[in-house]
Design a protein that fits this description.
Serine Threonine Protein Phosphatase 5, Tetratricopeptide repeat
């Protein structure tokens, strides 16, 4: 009952969330859902990534098949710049039934972007859009990909520059003939 109160209150009433969550964990300190929510509060409200990692790890030891755990846990690892650990977790999470594979690909893009491998990030975002089953995720990832594309170095197109130089030469010769 306290877990449902905590889930209902999160993230709008943090005081009520924490009170209910503490009661829930005092009754059952091994409840994976309550541990997951405590990790989310630590990560997203308190920016205590190390504390959040602790709760996510505890939740994982209680229920490794809880697919929704891996999205938040991976994202916290990325925010904490633990890219190698995040990659290992994603590699495992993709094999767990019930994980949202579209979100997993977005997280893969986040890892690559964090490591400044922008072309690989773009490729991962494209794959996330391809396998997404949700319009909100697709729209979100498209915006993420646009942001990454802007960061990529601009290519100089040699064909265009050759065409420009030819047209400039033609214009100069026309101007010369008009002056005569």
């Amino acid at each position: 009952m306290y877990l449902f109160k905590a889930l209902d209150a999160y993230p709008y009433s943090l005081e009520e969330t924490m009170e209910s969550l503490n009661y829930a964990l005092s009754y059952d300190p091994e409840n994976a859902e309550a541990l997951l929510l405590m990790g989310k509060v630590r990560a997203y409200q308190l920016r205590d990534y190390e504390g959040a990692k602790h709760y996510f790890e505890l939740a994982m030891t209680q229920n490794m098949e809880m697919g929704k755990l891996y999205i938040d846990y991976s994202y916290v690892l990325i925010l904490n710049e633990d890219f190698t650990e995040a990659q290992r977790l994603l590699d495992y999470a993709i094999t767990v039934k019930g994980t949202d594979k579209g979100w997993m690909q977005w997280l893969q893009g986040q890892i690559f972007e964090g490591m400044f491998e922008l072309k690989r990030a773009k490729k991962a975002y494209k794959e996330a859009i391809r396998i997404s089953k949700c319009n909100n995720l697709s729209a979100f990832v498209k915006r993420e990909m646009e942001r990454v594309v802007e960061k990529l170095p601009k290519k100089k197109n040699k064909k265009k520059s050759k065409k420009k130089s030819k047209t400039k030469r033609k214009e100069k010769s026309k101007n010369r003939s008009k002056k005569k």
